[in-house]
Amino acid sequence: MLQMKEAGATPSQVALGQTAVGAAAGQSLVVTNVCKSFGGLQVLKDVSLDCAAGEIVGLIGPNGAGKSTLINAITSLMSVTSGEVTLGGVRVSNTTPQFCAASGLGRTFQNIKLFTRLTVRQNVEVAHTSGLRDRGSLSAGIDIDALLDQFDLSRFADWKAGALSYGSQRRLEIVRALALAPEFLLLDEPAAGMNAAETTALISAVRQASSQFRCGVIVIDHDLRFIVTLCSRIFVLDAGRIIASGTPAEVTKDPKVIEVYIGHSKNKKTKSREE
Ligand SMILES: Nc1ncnc2c1ncn2[C@@H]1O[C@H](COP(=O)(O)OP(=O)(O)OP(=O)(O)O)[C@@H](O)[C@H]1O
Hints:
The protein is an alpha/beta fold. The protein has twelve helices and ten strands. The model is unreliable at 1-24 and 268-275 (pLDDT under 50).
């Protein structure tokens, strides 16, 4: 226990018998054979994927494929039924969301979860304070003003978060996650509700943040143009299984992927902004 305290572990990490801070610098996030069931409903079936430091990986699939469940399992918002998720070799699945954040997993939510009555800056400061506590010097280097500027939020810094447009709230969630100095950023539908110009700006901002912090990114979105442009590798989930993975060019030519997307062509959320 003494060794863990010396390594900078928080009480929750000590309680879990794991050391999080600094354990994963430059290392991969690895999902191995993860299964997740809700009662009799098996939502994730033997899912394996990985993301290296600084890599931007996409996760696509039709509605109900299990994408958000996977992000929730990676960040321990939900437990996994079997399999595991490791960050730099340290298990993060079946721990706690606090342990995952302290280990370097930053995330956004499909249904935006901001402190709507706090200002934009205060939302980021709350996360930054947690980062300073749990990630120490890693978080100390974060420049909140620069991050707000990068995501086009400087002019709204003193606005209540709840007064922002939907697209700005989504960008604020990303800035808040970055204020923790994450090793990996998990983005659940960050481009939802954005127009083409906002989506293009978001691509640049996420790329810049990933390269600046050498931060890996796993991103879910139904906007295929956004995913194909942003990501160097894509995993395709269908009915809880990974059915394809590879570069955007490989995945978009894969007959299994084409069949899934044509089979779900009546699915309103599965679209390309180029259509
Ligand atoms: N807490 C829960 N209890 C029971 N079933 C759940 C729970 N959470 C998710 N599910 C089910 O798991 C399946 C996958 O849902 P999930 O939200 O992960 O899919 P998704 O790929 O993210 O879909 P979408 O693109 O529509 O957001 C769905 O059938 C959903 O109803």
